[in-house]
Structures are given as structure tokens and as C-alpha cells.
Amino acid sequence: MKPELEPTIQALTKTFNSQVNEFRGDVRVTILAESIVAAAQMLRDEFDFSLLSTMTAVDFWPEENPRFEVIYLFTSVSKILNLSVLVQVPGINPSLPTITGIFKNAVWREREVWDMFGIKFEGHPDLRRILMPADWEGHPLRKDYPLGYEEPQFTFNFEEIDLRKPYAKE
Amino acid sequence: MTQLQEVSVDDIKHLVSERAIQGETVLLNMGPQHPSTHGVLRLLLELDGETVVSCIPDIGFLHTGIEKNMESKTYAKAAVMTDRLDYLNTLGNNLAYSMAVEKLIELDVPDRAQSIRVILAELQRIASHLIWLGTTGLDVAAMSTFLYCFRERESILDIFELCSGQRMMTTYIRPGGIWRDVPVEFEAAVRAFIKMFPKRVDEYEALLSRNPLFLDRTFGIGSVSSEQALNFGMTGPPLRASGVKWDLRKARPYSGYEQYDFEVPTRTEGDVYARYIVRIEELRQSVKIIEQALNKMPLGPVRSSNHKFVPPPRSEIGVNMEALIHHFKLWTEGFSAPKCAVYNAVESPRGELGVYIVSDGGPKPYRIHWRTPSFDNLLALPFMAKGVLVADLVAIIGSVDIVLGDVDR
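Above: the input entities. Below: the C-alpha cells describing the complete assembly.
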């Protein structure tokens, strides 16, 4: 761990009772879901992590509690540091508080996580689907969502499949 | 059956002003099939006369599910999909992915491969900036730059074809090194290019930099301050044009960038013209890096000799039984990575291109997330577009330099 990162880690551990682990130089801090807004605020205002590099989720289905892991990657441009903050989310009614008030690019990042994983963000100003069409069903990056395929047509089931194929109308 | 999706004003009520509901302003679609949106980007514009009141980007038309697809492929096979993300920065995507995998399995990369990677990544940066320069010129009605830029880009694509046999979808940079050593003609071709190119940059500048028509269209348009740019998550040239000196090649050097002497150009205005100047200067700096890398390029192997992860050369397979076993195992099952997660980012022509890989200990990535720079850079568009004319909006979209394959993944 870089020595510049230590005060940040100590403050996070003290305030939010977080767990810290490190792998190949990437430091990851796990905190509780309800403290993410306060943690993001603290990282930006007190420790100069002014850039939310990315934000994404991982689905650990069939685990149910916790099923999702949401990762926030903060970058400090002035001190050249990276810090990942992890939050665990249960599979039933997954939801998190929004950090759009602190980082503007979370507006789209959270929409993407909602679209792809179905994790709701409480207080988000505009939580619509972003990459999939508005009338899409399901959340594609969940592990219980199948990778799409086309049914092979043979002579015995040709007609049956042909009937439900989506052809464009005249 | 094709479905028509009904969208009522109620769905987007919170995004437009009161006046749109009362019918005082006009809602107008720009795109998805519009030449100035640089791909399939749809913008819903609320217009008062010709002034943009609000701008609502609608993305996802080019969503190909690459992240989901990669989860079902081995690490080696997933590398081929990386080209398809940002199709103007194919070698840069290969590099970002390969470095993330190398970090995950702690694989060494020979020095010669590192030099070749840097040369190719910088050539790719020049090629990408040339497309940007050409299309931005076209957007503000400067036709000739477009033709000049594509002429030079062609010679870069010829170099890529020389190395890999492909002009765009190369998959030349792979975990552990590069696919094969560059041919003997490579060095002469690159040297000829870097000798010719600086003069060509002067030509572009002569056409645009002091052109009063170009200045009118770009100066003071779409300004973003440094705090706002960071808050919007902008990286790359748009961030540097706002005065933040943030370039991953300097901040966290990778692939041997620390050996090369180059500047990170910045401006403070943050407008369309500042982004233009920053990118033009980057073209010159890239030439400088390529020249140094060519001079320092050592001889030696170009792929790691750790055959647990990197396929052995073809010549060994016929004579060495272990090599045959490795070859068979790597192309059927693939190699397994330790159970963990890594994040690795490189500086793409558009900004911070990051790959987040989560491994469950198996031969396939459990989850891959691409932090693509265009996604965050585009997010600031509604802010930049507020109160400008529709014609200026076109210049702003061009200056952000988005690639929709990069936005939608």
C-alpha cells in the first residue's frame, strides 16, 4: 500500500468500521451500504478524491445475501491514488442510496447499474434504462439472465419457429 | 413482430423545462442517423428558436453486450472482442485488456514487446486524433482537412496491416506480449511516417488554427471549468483542455513510458478551441515518443516464455511434447486466474480506459467491466450545450471526440 493512502484508510476504518484488503497493489475497502454517501462525501472533500473513475457491480448469483457487490472507484488526481470502495447488496429488493449529489457522472453510472443489474438507487433524479431499450424486460448482466441465442430450425419444427420469428411488417 | 414504442411527454417531463409542456419551445430529435453525431447517438433537443434550452442524450443504439459475451469466453479468446469496443483505438483496447490480464496472473512482458506496444499505441493515438480532426473540421465546414487527415491515417493503417495483416481489428497485442515480431520493413515504414508527419501537422494548423471562420465557430464555445470537468468524470484531452494535468502515461507510467521524454499539453479555457489545441499538440508529442521508442527498441523475444499462460511458438510444437500439451491446454481449456479482482487503466486517445476484471478462479473472467472514457465525456454534453446554438452544439460534440462503440459497449 502506498504510504499516502494510509491516512485515508485509517479515517475510513475509524468512521465507517470498514474492512480493508489489498491485491496486486489495488486497495479495496468494504463498507456498509448506508454509509456510502457519507464515505463518498468524505473522500471528495477531505482527501481530495475528486474523480469517480468508474462504478459497477458484480452478481454472485445463486448467493442471495449478499448477492451483489457494487464497486466505486475513486481517483485522486492531485495525489495520484486509486481507491475502490465496495458495498454489498442483498438479492431481494436490491437498492442503494445515490451519490449523484456528490459526483455528477454517477447519474449515468447508476443508471447503467440499474439497467444491467436491477439495483435501485434511492433519490436518483432520473433512473431510467440507459443502454437497453426502455421496454426491455430483465437485467442482462445478472448471472441468471441467459446469453441470447437463436433456436435452430430443422424440418420438423421449421413452421413452428417461423411463426414466432420477428419479421418486419409490410 | 416489430413494436412501436409509445413515448409520452410524461416520461421525460422532469428533463425538459416548463415551457416545453406548454408548447412554447420545440422538442426536436437530432440523430440517431445524423452525420454530426459521429455515430448512432440520439439527442433530444428542446429548442427556443435556434437556441438549445436543454439537451437529452439517448445512448445504447450500439450496445452489443460485449461485457456479457466476454464472461463466456476464455481470457485468450475474449481478447478478440476488445477491438470491437472503440473501433478507432483497437490497439489501445488490446493493450488495456492485456495489461489487466497480465496484472491478474502476474505475467512478465519482454522489453522488445513493450517498445513495440508503445510505438503501436502512439500510432493508434495519431490515427484516432486524425479522424477526430477530420470530422471536426467537417462539422464546422472545413472540407479539406478531412481529406488530408484520412490520407495520413491511411499510411498508419498500412503499418498496422504490415504487422498484423489487419487494418483495424488487429488483436495484435495479447496477454504476455504481442502476437509475433514485427516484420523487417516495420522500422523503415514508421521512420518514413514520423519524418513526414510533423510537416503535415503544420499544414493542418495552417488551415485551421488561425482561420477566422474556424475561430468564430470554436472560440469560447462549450466551456467547462476544471472542477466541473472532474465532477463530470471527464478524462483525456477534454480534461486537459480545462487545465487539469492528468495523463496516465505520466501519472502512472506503464509499458515503459517513464523512459520517454514528452510533454503533457494543457490549456485552461476548456472550450472547443482549447480541446483542438491540446489534441494538435498531442499529435506532435506522440511523434516524439515513437521516435524515442524506435531508437531504444531492443532485440529479443516478443512473447513471454511462461508457457503456462502464453502459447508456445509453432516451431516448438512439432518437436517438444510439453509444448504440444501447453498448446492443446491453452486453446481448449485456457489458463486459470487466481480468485480476485484487478483494475488497470491506460490513457486512450479519449481518456482513461480502464478494465476491471473479477475472477472466480476459473479459465473465464467472472465479470469484466470496461471503464470507457467516451461514456463520461459525453455525460457533460447537456451541461456544455445549455444556451448554445444548434450549429455550436455540433462543434461541441465533435470536440468531445466520442466513439459510440466506446459509449455503448
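Note for the figure: The radius of gyration of chain B is 23 Å.
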